[in-house]
Design brief:
nine-stranded mixed β-sheet; alpha/beta; about 300 residues; single chain; 5 helices; about 15% helix; two-stranded parallel sheet
Amino acid sequence: MVGMRRTGAEAPRSLRNQGQPSRAQADAAGPEGAAKPAGAAKPASAEPAGAANSAGAAAVRAARTAAAGAAALALAVTLAACGGDSHAAKAPSGGRASGDDAARKTDPTRVPGVGDALHKEIPGKSSQVVAVYGEGKNSATATVRLFSKKGGKWTRERSWPAHNGRRGWTRDHHEDDKRSPVGVFTLTDAGGVSSAPGAKLPYTASADFTPPTYWPKRTRHDFDHVIAIDYNRAKGTSPLDPTRPQGPSKGGSIWLHLDHGSGTSGCVSLPREGMEYLLRTLDPDKHPAVVMGDRADLSR
């Protein structure tokens, strides 16, 4: 098990020295219609002495509410790329995904539906590929398929309905654009609220993955299990590690995680059985990678 770096951005328990996130980050983290946490609270010693009067009591209540909210918000900033589904119409989910023709084998030495540009980026030593086929440039609906390579030939093992960023896909992902990044990325680390005894990837189990309480109830189990997509992150660390090698403006915390029935803020979500299967199957010795994007971008 990989030990998690206990940094201030990772969890409510270690937020005492954190600065406040920007308004854009707060808006990104909070779901539509939910109360956004207020700014930093005054310490208890700074509460007004006249709290017995109505104005003072209201101030005290506001300060205490802000303190709890600020803790949840800081965690949300770390997780903002993944959850808090809002600001867009709910995308359809479930059932068999359309466009299966793109995944039919034409050349067994290639991952179906992936053109030359991205196929060249799949590491030569990879023998496991998770392919995410987005339905369209601006669609939140996708299909996830797992392929394995034996004897130089790719074979499809499993397929699941999925969701991606609520605004679709982009080749130039930035923080808060609500789109999933197109590309090929390695898969090296996993984690989640729940333990995963059968996981082969290094796995960090921690309550620090718990989504903020002000997110919709349907997102409560989104991060029971996650697999970090190695986009703008430090490999070999917990998925919660806040390191952004390309800088914070390029976003981060792009994960595979459990689906809540609609688009995400940039992650790829799939059913629980799919996540559990990937955790049991993806093997560091097989150098797993993900190739992801809308079908048009994938096929270039």
